[in-house]
Amino acid sequence: MNRRGLAVIGFCLLTLGGCGKSYSMEEAVKNGDIVTTPEQHHMDRFATFLKHVDEKEKDTIRITNYTTEGDAILEDVSYDGKRFTYSLDSSRDAYGSQTDDRNKEICQNLEKRTENERSVVFLTDCEEGEDHEILVSDVAESEQ
């Protein structure tokens, strides 16, 4: 096969590969994801997750945030009754860097803090040494 044919095949594969990575907000909401930006959806599901953690019951959630450009950043959090497993996938973010992505990092605790009049939920005591902010909401919203 000549170089031009290889170039065309390569271009087609790159184009198709990129298209397969999009994840619209409508799709995330339909799948039951907890969406926090730019709109909030399924926040009651997050409250249920927190209740399960308090009761030491197993549960798994996906939190999907969107960048200004509309690219999805996915966070998967599983709780096994004792500890959390955290994964972060920013591969759909065209302007982002995957250097901070995580794949099944173990975290020991979940903490809720108030910062700048916002309620922030973190996973703490994680294997790689950093806390992970998983949800931010206005304090007034979180008290309802």
Strand order across the largest sheet: 1-2-3-4-5-6-7
Q: For the CA atoms, what is the radius of gyration?
A: 18 Å
Following the backbone from N to C, one meets helices and strands in this order, namely HHEHEEEEEEH
Which structural class do the helices and strands define? alpha+beta
Nearest-integer average pLDDT = 84
Uncertain stretches: 5-20, 140-144
Number of strands: 7
The number of domains is 1
Largest sheet: 7 strands, mixed
Task: Please report the number of helical segments.
Answer: 4
> DSSP strand (E) fraction?
35-45%
User: Distance between the terminal alpha carbons, to the nearest Å?
Assistant: 65 Å
Helical proportion, percent range = 25-40%
Broad shape: globular
InterPro entries: DUF4362 (IPR025372)
Protein name: DUF4362 domain-containing protein
Pfam families: DUF4362
Please give a structural write-up.
The chain contains four helices and seven strands, in the order ααβαββββββα. The protein is of the alpha+beta class and 144 residues long. It has a seven-stranded mixed sheet with strand order 1-2-3-4-5-6-7. It has one domain. It holds the Pfam family DUF4362. It comes from Exiguobacterium undae.
Which short descriptors sum up this protein?
144 residues; alpha+beta; 4 helices; 7 strands; 39% strand; DUF4362; DUF4362 domain-containing protein
Reconstruct the topology from this structure.
Layout: H1 3-19, H2 25-30, E1 34-37, H3 43-54, E2 59-66, E3 72-79, E4 84-89, E5 102-115, E6 118-126, E7 132-138, H4 139-142
Parallel strand pairs: 1-2
Antiparallel strand pairs: 2-3, 3-4, 4-5, 5-6, 6-7
